[in-house]
Amino acid sequence: MADTRPFPHSENIHVLTVPLPGFPDLICSNMFVLGKGPVTLIDAAPKFPGSFFTMERQLSDAGITWRDVERIIITHGHIDHFGLVGQIRHAASRDIPCHVHEDDLWRLSSEYLGSGMWSRDADSFAARAGIPAVTVERMKRRSHFFKNLCDPVDNALPMEEGDTFEGKGFELSVIHTPGHSPGSCCIYERHSRILFSGDHLLKHITPNPFHEVNRSRLRSPEYRSLKAYLASLDKLEHLDMSFAFPGHGDSIDDIKGLMEGYRRHHRERFESVQRALEGRSRSLYELMTDLFPGLVEAETFLAISEVLVHLELLEEDGKARLIDEGPPARYGCT
After folding, report:
1. Closest-CA residue to 77 (of 34, 117, 37, 39)
2. Residues 45-64: tens digit of each pLDDT
3. How do residues 210-237 score in pLDDT, each as one tens digit?
C-alpha cells in the first residue's frame, strides 16, 4: 500500500485504513469511528482477504469492539464502501442499523448483487456506446468478480438530505452530494468542522461522476451525473470546513483549492471532447480511443463514462448533437 500521511487528530474520531490490492489509484479505504461508545462507523471496506481483521486490530488499539458499533453510515452504494457490513454485523452478533441514501439503496440488494451487477440497461449502454462484443464479455466477467467483494445488505435504512445522527462527542448532518453516484452523500461533523467526503472529494485523483447505466432504477430519469456533481461542489462552497476526510487517500486541508482544480479539469475535458468531434461524427467508443490512446481494456467503462458525461452537457449547451441513434449512437458538432 502506498504511504499515506496521518490524519489530523480530532477528539472522538478514529481513522481506520485498509489496503486495496490491485487498485493502486485508490491507495486505500478509509473508515471513520466517531464517539466513545456506543460509536458510529462511517463506511466499511471491501471484503478483501484480511481487511476485516485489519479493521478489527485498529479498533482494538482504540479500545473499541464491534459490539460498541451503534450504527453504520454508508456514504454511497459502491462495494468498496459497504463490503464488510455483513461480517461486522456477524462479529457484533446483531443487525447493526445501516444507513445509505435512498437513491443508492438498490446497490446493496441481493437482487442487484446476485445478478453480478450487470443488467439489460448495461447491455443497452454497451450497444449504444459501440463497445466491441469481446470487450463487453470481459466487462461482464469483471462485474461478476466484483460481487465477491461484498455481502448484500437488504435491510439498509434510507437516509436523506438534512438527516442527523448524534452521539457522545459528535453531531453529524447528511449532505446529499450526487454525482459520483445518485445517492452519494457527505457527512458533516459540526463540532470539529470535518467533512467525511466519501468519494465526492479525493485529494490524489479527480473523482469520477459515473454515468448511471441503470437508468430504469433512477428516481429522476433526467439525472445527469456530471451536472449533479458540479452542483454538489457548489453546495459545499460556503460550508465551514476545517478538513475533509475522504474515503481514499490523505485528508484534505485546501478544500476550496481542490474543488477549483476539479472544475478546471472538467472545463478542459469539455474542450477536448468538443475538439474530438470536429470534422466527422464519432461513436462513444471512437471518442474514447481518440481521447485516451493506449488505454488498458479494464478501464473501458471509466473512460467511456468520462466522455459521455461531458458530451451530455455539451449537448445541453448546444455545442454537440446526436446525429444517429444507432446503435451505436454517433455524435457530432453543431
Report:
1. 117
2. 999 999 999 999 999 999 99
3. 999 999 999 998 999 999 999 999 999 9
- Residue 75 and residue 132 in contact, taking contact as beta carbons nearer than 8 Å: no
Contact 207, 186 (CB under 8 A): no
User: How do the residues of the chain divide into helix, strand and coil, expressed in percent and rounded to 5?
Assistant: 40, 20, 40
How many helices (H) and strands (E) in the chain? 9, 14
Distance separating alpha carbons of residues 22 and 268, to the nearest angstrom: 29
* Residue found under cell 487528530: 9
**Separation of alpha carbons 277 and 329, rounded Å:** 13
- What phi and psi values does residue 197 have, to the nearest 5 degrees? -100, 5
Q: Which amino acid is at 214?
A: N
Which domains, ranges and CATH numbers included, belong to the chain? Answer: 13-255 (3.60.15.10), 264-320 (no CATH)
- The full length of the chain comes to 334
Query: Which amino acid would we find at residue 36?
Result: K
pLDDT tens digits, 259-314? 999 999 999 999 999 999 998 899 999 999 999 998 999 899 999 999 999 999 99
Using a 10 angstrom Cβ sphere, with 0-12 exposed, 13-18 middle and 19 or more buried, the burial of residue 264 is exposed
Grid cell at residue 17: 485504513
Closest by alpha carbon to 195, among 273, 260, 122, 256? Answer: 256
User: Residue 159's beta-bridge partner residues?
Assistant: 101
One-letter amino acid identity for 313? L
C-beta separation of 9 from 192 below 8 A? no
Grid coordinates belonging to 290: 481518440
Global pTM value: 0.95
Pick from 42, 38, 81: nearest CA to 195: 42
Confidence at 1, pLDDT banded by 50, 70, 90? very low
Query: What H or E segment, with its residue span, contains residue 134?
Result: helix 133-146
Chain CA centroid to CA 179, Å: 8
